[in-house]
Every structure is written in structure tokens, then in C-alpha cells.
Design a protein that fits this description.
The chain contains eleven helices and 19 strands. Helix 4 packs parallel to helix 5 and helix 9 packs across helix 11. About 12% of the residues have low confidence.
């Protein structure tokens, strides 16, 4: 029986996507539940799995844009039996006379040594690649058999393939051994012709959506940014003193982001207008606190939402943020993870940013920007001391929020960070 593989619906507003990578090639046998291809839309990237076992026949190439409901492959489940028979056939004992004649009993076929029962290493690696690793290998056109795996049993990890991508652009050492040039059939690096000094390629749906959102925010809101700075000494000392106990009791490290989420919630309660949004001629005041936390990925910036942040403990916040970060980088976020936030926090400091003005995440009215912690000389009680300082930036929609309210909000965040006792500490 022939089963059509169609592009599934991944959200009401999503009408198309891109088959960014095939995890299985045409003609290969797939098992039910195995990932077939990665579908990238303007909101999420997700793996589509096989509904039945059988032989796959792809209909569209990787990189092609497809519509929701379009048939991109078929699976022939009638070939399942033939596949199983081929796998079982080598296991059947051959007649003794045939073994003696052919010499198979004492002279087995030579295969490269591997950690997987004598199968070739390249085959082992190809069949044990995780979806995230396989996606990078296919997108970057890597040869997994030439990469040394550091995972269990020599398996390739994401760090292995990312390192291979990084090292690929480095020049190969000059070879001076006699006869080396004759052995190489072609150079490893081929310089592009002069007319190919640039490459034109389509933007991914996610990148296009990000671009549209940023331009829309600039065109539809009166964005203004106010700045302040906060002394991180107390928070850093609190993390140092409580880290071991927190990690032991909660099974996760105490990070900085949970402090800023808690501080933002306290500031939103003190200045409720920052937690609202404009809808046409109306202003909608939100009385719940769903905080978006921006996560950078290889495909662009996404903002998963921490629901009811005011009701969650520090440990719950750290777990949610860590889970979002992993799923965002692996392309496992769901559409509902990205919808409905009331306020956003973005941390450019993890990339080394010292000072920047974040852009609003529509339709929200405010976004808090964190930056790099830098030791700087500051005046403390009439003396100059070197303290770990962080610049804070609040971008806001001036149509809904006045300057006084924005400054009050940012000062409240500063106070909560410099004196964490003002936060509902639960550790």
C-alpha cells in the first residue's frame, strides 16, 4: 500500500514551509516514528516522522518551499517484508558442503574494524546520528565518516560536527613530502572563480519572519529606549554562596536569568502599563505575567514564553529557560511555545554586547535588554571602587508608556537586582 507523506499543519497562521533537510534518502527503508525530514516555517522548525514503515520515495528536494497539505514523499509499506527477508537471509546457516567449497567457513569477508559488531564505521555513524547532528551534516554537506566522534562508542556529537564546520574553512598545511602532490587527485580547497565572489540564496522562512517583525515594530510603534546600570555584586555573591546547595536540591544551576525574570515581574506589578499593549484604538491591560526569553539559534532569534512567571520558583524558571534553550537549538519548539507573551527579556551580554537598544517584540509594549557584566570604577559612599556592573536598556512603545513610567520600571528592576531581598527568594 502506498502512503502519502503530506506537510502537516503546524499552526493556524502557517501556510507554507521549507523542507530544510531530508533525514532519510529516497529508496531507504524507514521505520514508523522515524524522522523523515525537517520542516522549517516562519515560526518553528520541526521534524516530521513516518506514520508507517516501508520504503521511502521523496518527491521534492531539500531546500524547496512547500505548502501545508502538499505531498512531499510516499512510503511503500508492501516492501517491508522483502526488507526483513534480506536482513534474515545472511543469518541462515549455509550447507556444510557449500562452506567447504567456497571457503567461507575460514575466510570471512574483510570489513573495517568498528565499535558496532564489525560493521563499517561509516555505516555505524550514519545510522546513529541524532536528528540534530544529522541536520547539520546534511545542511553543511559534511562527510561523517571523516569526522572523529567523541560520544559514547565513537558516535558523533553536535560539538563534533560544529567543530568540523569551523575547521573546514581553515587552510590545510602545506605538504612538501615527495610524491604527495601526485597522490592527491584534487585540492581540498577550491577557490571560487572571480565571477562567483558572492552567493545569492533565499532567506529561510524564520529569517524572513524575523525581518518582517522587526520592520513592522519600527514602522508601527514609537520606540524609545531608556538606560540605567546595576551593580551585580550582591547577586553574584548570592549565587556563589547558594550554588552548591541549590544545584544539589534542584538538580539545576542557579543562573542570572531567573533573577531578572523575577525582577521584571516585580517591576511590571509596580508599573502595570508596561505589561499592556495597544490594539487598534484600545489599550489592553494584561493582569498575568507571561515573560518571553529571547534565545539565539543558528537559524535566528526565537522568543519562547515562560508562562505565569510570577507563580514559579527560581528552580522552575531555570528549568523552563534551560529546556527552551535546548529545544530551540534542536528545532523542537512548538508554535504554542512562542505565542502570547506580555513582556520580553533579551540578554546580549552572552555574546559580549556592552550596550545596545533592543527592538520591541510586537504586539508587546516593552522589552528589557541585559548586557555584559564588566568591572568598572564606581562611586560607593564617597569612595571609588571597582564593581561588576551591567548596563540595562528598556525599549518601550511611547504611544502607551510615558517616560516617567519607563524610568520608574527600570529603576525598580535595578533595585531588585542590587538588593535581591526585595525579590520572593525561595532557596
Amino acid at each position: 500500500m502506498i502512503i502519502e507523506v503530506k506537510v502537516p499543519s503546524v499552526g493556524e497562521s502557517v501556510t507554507s514551509g521549507v523542507v530544510s533537510a531530508w533525514h532519510k534518502k529516497s529508496g531507504e527503508f524507514v521505520n514508523e516514528g522515524e524522522p523523515l525530514f525537517a520542516l522549517e516555517t516562519d515560526k518553528v522548525s520541526t521534524d516530521i516522522v513516518a506514520e508507517k514503515s516501508g520504503v521511502l520515495e521523496t518527491k521534492v528536494p531539500a531546500g524547496q518551499e512547500v505548502k501545508i497539505g502538499e505531498v512531499v514523499a510516499i512510503i511503500d509499506d508492501s516492501k517491508q517484508g522483502a526488507k526483513q527477508e534480506k536482513e534474515e537471509q545472511p543469518q541462515k546457516a549455509q550447507p556444510e558442503e557449500k562452506k567447504k567449497k567456497t571457503g567461507l567457513q575460514k575466510k570471512p569477508d574483510a570489513v573495517p574494524a568498528s565499535v558496532d559488531g564489525g560493521r563499517p564505521e561509516s555505516t555505524t555513524q550514519a545510522t546513529t546520528l541524532s536528528p540534530g547532528v544529522r541536520r547539520i551534516v546534511e545542511e553543511e554537506k559534511l562527510e561523517p565518516e571523516k569526522i572523529t566522534g567523541t560520544g559514547q562508542g565513537g558516535r558523533l556529537t553536535k560539538a563534533d560536527v560544529l567543530k568540523a564546520v569551523e575547521n573546514r574553512g581553515k587552510a590545510e598545511p602545506f605538504e612538501v613530502a615527495v610524491g604527495k602532490a601526485e597522490e592527491k587527485s584534487e585540492p581540498r580547497e577550491v577557490q571560487p572563480p572571480r565571477e562567483a565572489r558572492f552567493i545569492r540564496k533565499k532567506m529561510s522562512p524564520l529569517r524572513r519572519k524575523i525581518a518582517q517583525q522587526l520592520v513592522m515594530a519600527q514602522h508601527t510603534a514609537a520606540i524609545l529606549t531608556t538606560f540605567n546600570e546595576c551593580d551585580m555584586s550582591t547577586v553574584q555573591e548570592l549565587r556563589r554562596s547558594k550554588q552548591d546547595e541549590f544545584t544539589k536540591n534542584q538538580g539545576i544551576k542557579l543562573g542570572l536569568m531567573s533573577f531578572f525574570v523575577k525582577a521584571a515581574v516585580e517591576a511590571l506589578k509596580a508599573v502595570p502599563v508596561v505589561n499592556g499593549r495597544i490594539d487598534g484604538d484600545d489599550f489592553i491591560q494584561n493582569n498575568f505575567y507571561d515573560i518571553g526569553v529571547a534565545v539565539g539559534t543558528e537559524r535566528g532569534l526565537v522568543v519562547p514564553i515562560v508562562r505565569d512567571a510570577d507563580k514559579k520558583s527560581f528552580a522552575d524558571l531555570e528549568r523552563d529557560i534551560a529546556d527552551f534553550a535546548v529545544r530551540a537549538r534542536d528545532g523542537k519548539l512548538k508554535l504554542e511555545d512562542l505565542q502570547g507573551g506580555t513582556f520580553t527579556i533579551t540578554n546580549g551580554g552572552v555574546y559580549g554586547s556592552l550596550f545596545a537598544t533592543p527592538i520591541l517584540n510586537p504586539p508587546q509594549s516593552g522589552i528589557l535588554g541585559m548586557h555584559k557584566i564588566m568591572p568598572r570604577p564606581v562611586a560607593v559612599d564617597g569612595r571609588v571602587e571597582v564593581r561588576p556592573m551591567m548596563y540595562l536598556a528598556l525599549s518601550y512603545d511611547h504611544r502607551a508608556i510615558d517616560g516617567k513610567e519607563a524610568v520608574t520600571f527600570l529603576i525598580k528592576v535595578k533595585e531588585c537586582i542590587e538588593d535581591p531581598k526585595k525579590l520572593p527568594l525561595d532557596f
